[in-house]
Design brief:
about 15% strand; At1g61320/At1g61330-like; F-box domain-containing protein; 3 domains; disordered N terminus; 11-stranded parallel sheet; F-box-like_dom_sf; alpha/beta
C-alpha cells in the first residue's frame, strides 16, 4: 500500500512538472486581480497586509482592499514614560504610510487607536479626511488621552476645516454611507455631531467619549436610524429606534438626573440601558422619595448602573426602573467607578464599595417576579 502511494505521488509530480506544490499555490495567483482583491477584502487588515510577502503578484494587492483598515496600536506596551514619544512617532509614521499606499476607492471600516494629543493634529486630520474620502461605513477614532490632570497634553479638537469640508457637496455625499461613528478623547461640538446625525441617513451607532466641547447634544428626527448611543452627556432625544444606550453622567445633585426618565420614555424600543454615574461635589443628604408610576420601555430587558454608591437618588433611579420597566429581566448594580472599569484597579475592594453593595441589597425585597438582581 505504501509503495502504491509513493508511486502515485511521483506520478502527480510528473504531471505537475518541477515544483509541484509551488505550481498548485500559483494557481491562486493566476486568478484575476479583481477576484484576489475581493478575497483580500474579506481578511483583517493584518492578514491582508501579510499577503504581500507571497510573491510579486501579491505585493501591493492589499493596498486595493475595501474591507477593514484596523490600525489599532494601543496594545503596544512600554515601561518608561519617555518611550511614549518614540512609540507615538512610530505609530503616526506607520499610519501615514498605510494611508499613502492605499489605493482602494472605499473601505468598510477604518480605525485609528493610539495615545495621541493635539501635537499630532496634522496626522489626525489626515486620518479623518481619509475616512471621509474613502466613504467609510464604520469610523473609529480613539486617541486615549487624559484631560483635566495637571500637565496633561492638550486634547485634539475636531478642526473647523473638516467641518467646512463635510458640509460641501463632495464631503456630504461621502459621509452618507456612514453607519457607525466612534470618537473618543477628541473634542467635538454638538453642532458638528448634529450635522452628522442629520446628514447620515444610515447611521445606527454613535459613540462619543470625553469631549470637553460637547456641552449639549440634540438627537432628534423622524428619519434617524440610530440604535446604539454611547455618550457622556444627557442629550435631548427623540430616539424612536434606539436599542442600546450607554450614558456616562457627571452629576452634582438629583436635579442633574431629571432628564433620565424623559430620555428613557423617548426611546420606546430600548432593550438595554447602561448608566455610568459619577458624583461630583459633596453629598447632599435628603429623604428618599417614592418612584413615580409611569410604564416605560416595553422592550427594555437589561439595565446596568455603573458607579452605584447607594445615595438616595441611586436607589430612586433603580426603583423607578423596577417599577416601570414592565419587560425587565435583569438589573445589574456595579459599585465600581466608571473611570476604573476595564483597568487593573477594577477588582480592588474598598470600604465604600462594600457599603454600596450592602445598600444595593435593599433592592432584593422590591424585585418584581422574574427579575434577576446582580451586584458587583
Amino acid at each position: 500500500m505504501e509503495k502504491r502511494v509513493n508511486q502515485t505521488s511521483r506520478c502527480d509530480q510528473e504531471q505537475l512538472g518541477d515544483g509541484g506544490e509551488n505550481y498548485l499555490q500559483d494557481r491562486i495567483s493566476k486568478l484575476p486581480n479583481e477576484m484576489l482583491i475581493c478575497i483580500i477584502s474579506r481578511l483583517t487588515f493584518r492578514e491582508a497586509a501579510s499577503t504581500s510577502v507571497l510573491s510579486k503578484t501579491w505585493r501591493y494587492l492589499w493596498t486595493f482592499s475595501t474591507g477593514s483598515l484596523d490600525l489599532d496600536g494601543s496594545k503596544k506596551k512600554w515601561e518608561e514614560p519617555w518611550l511614549l514619544e518614540v512609540e507615538q512617532s512610530k505609530y503616526v509614521t506607520w499610519v501615514n504610510q498605510v494611508l499613502d499606499l492605499h489605493q482602494g476607492s472605499t473601505v468598510d471600516e477604518f480605525k485609528v487607536c493610539f495615545q495621541l494629543d493635539n501635537s499630532f493634529k496634522c496626522s489626525i486630520n489626515k486620518s479623518i479626511g481619509f475616512a471621509i474620502a474613502k466613504r467609510a461605513q464604520r469610523f473609529d477614532l480613539d486617541l486615549k488621552t487624559t484631560a483635566g490632570l495637571l500637565g496633561a497634553p492638550e486634547r485634539y479638537t475636531f478642526p473647523h476645516e473638516c467641518n467646512v469640508y463635510i458640509q460641501t457637496s463632495r464631503g456630504l455625499s461621502s459621509i452618507k454611507s456612514l453607519r457607525s461613528l466612534s470618537l473618543k478623547s477628541a473634542n467635538i461640538t454638538g453642532e458638528i455631531l448634529e450635522f452628522f446625525l442629520s446628514s447620515c441617513p444610515l447611521l445606527e451607532r454613535l459613540c462619543v467619549h470625553s469631549s470637553e466641547h460637547l456641552l449639549n447634544l440634540k438627537v432628534a428626527g423622524s428619519s434617524l436610524q440610530l440604535k446604539y448611543l454611547e455618550n457622556m452627556q444627557l442629550p435631548q432625544c427623540e430616539l424612536t429606534k434606539l436599542r442600546h444606550l450607554i450614558l456616562r453622567v457627571r452629576a452634582c445633585d438629583s436635579d442633574s438626573l431629571l432628564g433620565l426618565t424623559r430620555l428613557m420614555e423617548a426611546s420606546p424600543l430600548l432593550q438595554k440601558f447602561t448608566l455610568q454615574l459619577t458624583w461630583i461635589g459633596p453629598s447632599r443628604r435628603r429623604k428618599k422619595r417614592n418612584a413615580p408610576k409611569c410604564p416605560i420601555d416595553r422592550h427594555l430587558k437589561v439595565v446596568e448602573f455603573v458607579g452605584f454608591v447607594g445615595r438616595p437618588i441611586d436607589l430612586e433611579l433603580a426603583m423607578y426602573v423596577l417599577g416601570n420597566a414592565v419587560m425587565l429581566e435583569k438589573i445589574i448594580i456595579n459599585t465600581t467607578s466608571p473611570y476604573l472599569v476595564g483597568t487593573q484597579w477594577e477588582s480592588e475592594e474598598s470600604e465604600e464599595k462594600l457599603a454600596a453593595r450592602k445598600r444595593a441589597k435593599q433592592l432584593k425585597t422590591k424585585l418584581p417576579q422574574g427579575v434577576e438582581l446582580v451586584i458587583h
